[in-house]
Amino acid sequence: ESIPVITIDGPTASGKGTLAAAVAARLGWHQLDSGMLYRATALAAMRQGVDAGDEAALARVASSLQLRFDGERVLLEGADVATELRFEAVGAMASKIAALPAVRSALNALQLSFRKLPGLVADGRDMGTVIFPAAPLKVFLTASPAQRAERRHKQLISKGISASIADLWADLEARDARDKNRSVAPLKPAEDALLLDNSGLTIDQSVDRVLAWWAERN
Ligand code: C5P
Asked: Where along the sequence do coiled-coil regions lie (predicted)?
């Protein structure tokens, strides 16, 4: 319980991952990108031909996930899948299976295992509400839909994946709606979360904001 955790939750493409990585680097802490675990489960399920509606089979895939992180590489059963995990089809499948309670609980222990000294920065949808409810600092990050669609577009282009902004926008809205309206662990700020709208901010400004909040708690 004495290992500190900073949670950063928010909608798709709000900049959570970038912010979490930068805050973790500045503090010298570990990082958990929880969306990656849902994406990896989705990818493994797609590869095994598991049906998106077969909750029990999907939960088995989640609990037997052979995942390792090695710098920029994400190894699924030994092979680097970092690029594939970012594919829109994988994200869309992740968003669907993330609504299934058995899949979510199958990933609980794995998520908790990332909490190690000297501290953890965890980003996702339910880090502050469900997985680390006692975290001393919880941030809920938002950004305008236009900015989010544009960021996601740039992110994909930089990885050599093409996509239209209009399609991305529609996809973001569908995913947010699913995340907010599901019955288990819906996307919402924890009661004690601090809200950060990064629309007009640079990454450094957002990082400084979070670090200042952290400093105030110590
Ligand atoms: O954050 P990212 O977009 O990579 O996550 C992929 C999907 O996994 C999201 O669309 C969301 O539905 C789901 N997710 C979740 N809970 C988390 C992290 C991600 O439901 N803590």
From this structure: none
Atom of ligand 1 nearest to the CA of 91: 6
Grouping H, G, I as helix, E, B as strand and the rest as coil, residue 27 is helix
Alpha-carbon distance 67 to 53, whole Å?
Answer: 23
Q: What is the pLDDT of residues 164-192, one digit of tens each?
A: 999 999 988 998 999 999 999 999 999 99
Residue with tokens 């239209």: 164
Cα of 218 vs centre of ligand 1, distance in Å, is 30
Q: Which of 23, 37, 114 is nearest to 76 (CA)?
A: 37
**How many Cβ atoms are within 10 Å of 68's Cβ, its own excluded?**
11
Residue pLDDT, tens place only, 104-136: 999 999 999 999 999 999 999 999 999 999 999
Residue 62 contacts residue 106 (beta carbons within 8 Å): yes
Helix (H, G, I), strand (E, B) or coil at 124: strand
Cα diameter, the chain: 49
Place of tokens 């669907």: 96
Assess whether the C-beta atom of 20 lies below 6 angstroms from ligand 1. Answer: no
Could you tell me if the CB of 126 is within 6 A of ligand 1?
yes
ipTM value of the model?
Answer: 0.98
Q: Residues annotated in the binding site, as ranges?
A: 10-18
- Nearest atom within ligand 1 for CA of residue 85: 4
Ligand 1 contact, 128 CB (< 6 A): no
